[in-house]
Design goal:
about 280 residues, single chain, globular
Length: about 280
Amino acid sequence: MQSIVNYFETISTLHRSLILFGGMLFFYIVEYAVPLFKFKYNKPSHAGVNLLFTFTTIIINFLLAFAIVFAGDFSISNNIGILTHLALPLWANVVVGLMLLDLIGAYTVHLVEHKVKWMWKFHLIHHSDTHIDATSANRHHPGESVFRLIFTVVAVAIVGAPVWLVMMYQSVSVVLSQFNHANIKLPKVIDKAMSWIIVSPDMHKVHHHFSQPYTDSNYGNIFSIWDRIFGTFKTLSANKITYGIDTHMQPKENDAIGNLFAIPFQPYRPPQGGKFNEN
């Protein structure tokens, strides 16, 4: 375990990039071998749109990374973080730290995005994707990337997470997100067993169904326990899932880059109750 900690303590930008793009490429290839859905769409073109948003997220995280480092150092040096008050073995420190960072920095912000209208309009860009695959994981409007990073800063401060734990969390988070978004079909028994611990592909696909109440469920990113504890866990057979969001089902709205950047500044549209918006 110590060697893993040492690795993330000194992880380079190159290695972080390899984890991000290597994971995406790996699952992107696996999708061709064992697809959940055989979409009739242009995968490279679809990936192009999502990669643009991936790059904007990378830029924002790079520019504001100092805030995460400061929050962790301040919390630890002032002995105010949760981990600073727990005398745990290293492995338990890692598990508890990852779980708390996931709860605050992923589950909580995701839940809030679905409840606060102005935040939802930013997050909607992620849900507007009608062809969910590995590249969909980082399809986030720059505005959403900012307030997700803010929640991460808060999480790091509350947890008292050292830099190596933050690097580990972000690496695990990005790979798990690519995994559970990937258009891959796992044996049901394996997927179900997996979903008791981590967010599995079948579990997260329910979240991308185009209408409520399924859209407002399964908010987890790494650990599935939070959805089970807080009553936001739902299941739905894959053959009943329609990807997208019922207020923006037209390609001119969900596939046009200019409109995707503009959606947060357009009038709010209430849920359509599972009906396609033909406008």
